[in-house]
Description:
This protein is an alpha+beta fold. The protein is built from seven helices and 16 strands. It has helices at 3-8, 42-55, 103-112, 128-134, 197-207, 226-232, 261-279, and strands spanning 13-20, 32-39, 59-62, 68-70, 75-81, 88-91, 94-98, 137-138, 141-142, 147-154, 157-162, 181-187, 239-240, 243-245, 253-255, 288-290. The longest helix has 19 residues, at 261-279. The radius of gyration is 19 Å and the shape is globular.
Amino acid sequence: MGIVELFRQIPDIHFTENENMSDKTSLFVGGNARYYVCPDSAHAVIECINVALKSGIPYKIIGNGTNLLVSDNGYNGLIVRTKNLCGVLLDKGEIIALCGTPLGKFVNFVSGCGRTGAEGLVGIPATVGGALTMNAGAFGYSMSDYVSEITCVSGGETVRRKKSECGFGYRTSAFKDNGEFIVSAKFRFPKRKTLIKNDFCGARRKRQPSGRTCGSVFKNPAGDFAGRLIEKAGLKGITVGGACVSEKHANFIITESGATSRDVYDLIAKIKTVVFRKFGVRLKEEVEYLGEF
């Protein structure tokens, strides 16, 4: 039986071939994924991964594709998108969120429950699973700050990981490389009488550009800010093809209509080269590359 027939036999998934990825990422660039599925259950995710493993094809699990740069040549493997695994609830004082829950919905739910601690995450265009995998954050907050437990799939089995087992660090976690898939997470947020989410909304609008962007392109080096170094290097506003360093915040790249992944890739390489030449600092990307460049 061929791989397409194997996928089509799995219940609770939406399966396509040669799916264009340019509208599946926040940069709106990139080629096609050879196989693409949107599962409706965690069990369906496991079934899809098993097909990929048995067939010897690579796979990548994504949420909103916020920190993802897909090659113009596409991805010769399986994309599993978690957007249908969405939901958040309050249970015995803990907030439980499924991996595909948009971060905006998650933040609003936390605030609506009279809790605080998620406000700094407002405006990040990610899902809970993707944000946990990258340990996304802003304004001094990170996704891992209030995590108590994560349910994930490891080796075809569902396991629960305590926070101490998840390898959280600055814009990273063990889930980036260990092959485990986050299904859901439990959080313990403290109660607060006065909510301050709108303060963070305003600060984000003032500091960060809107439009076709993947958020912060580079991690901040120790004791400094990537945006400050890029701006100091005179790189604000420079372009490569349809990709441009934002005039508003130098650690953001914006793509125009007609931009390619190669434009973004080459612009990132140029920024890294110039910053290292001027300051001796090697910037490290937050953005992930998928496919061949």
